Amino acid sequence: MKYANPYVAGVGLGLVLIAAFALTGHGLGASGAFAASAAGTVRAIAPDTAAANGFFNRYVADGADPWRDWLVLEILGVFVGGFLSAALAGRLRPTVDRGAGIAVRTRLMRAAGGGALMGVGAVLARGCTSGLALSGGALLSVGSWAFMMSAFAAGFAAAPLVRRSWP
User: Fold this and answer.
1) What's the predicted TM-score (pTM) here?
2) 119 by DSSP, 3-state: which?
3) Which residue, 20, 32, 19, 90, is CA-closest to 58?
4) CB neighbours (10 Å) of residue 12?
5) Residues in CB range of 66: below 8 A, 6 or more apart
6) What confidence tens digit (pLDDT) does each residue in 102-139 have?
7) How far is CA 123 from CA 30, 109, 118, 120, 146, in A?
8) Which of 50, 59, 85, 128 has the smallest number of CB atoms closer than 10 Å to its CB?
């Protein structure tokens, strides 16, 4: 049940990023898929509200189908690829990775809270960490590189605070 070599996986991710730029004209990201899904849901329930809302309107303008947005398809591919990867590596089983000092429920609540904070941050920043780091970094955007250095510094600073959860 070994994990992939991180260097090989990194090269693979870089090749996927190059292919995304070459084939779609877009880089990689994730938050746009959730925004498009929200727009599709609002349009299905209250089409007038979706059309009148500036945030949702960019996904439903001109009769566009937000469920066919390229980021939605990308995230579906991430789920399928993750499932296949786990199946091929023999790691496909229901489990919650956690340290010995933390209960499953607490781990899930912290993961959900962290995910919600990341989602709010992505909306406020008008993009997600993966899009900023991968796509912006590949384009040599100074802001992307500054953000990533700050994110890694914050991660190192916060690590001692959450270390007890991972013995």
Assistant:
1) 0.74
2) helix
3) 32
4) 12
5) 36, 37, 39, 40, 43, 59, 60, 72
6) 889 998 998 999 889 888 888 777 778 888 888 888 88
7) 11, 21, 9, 5, 19
8) 85
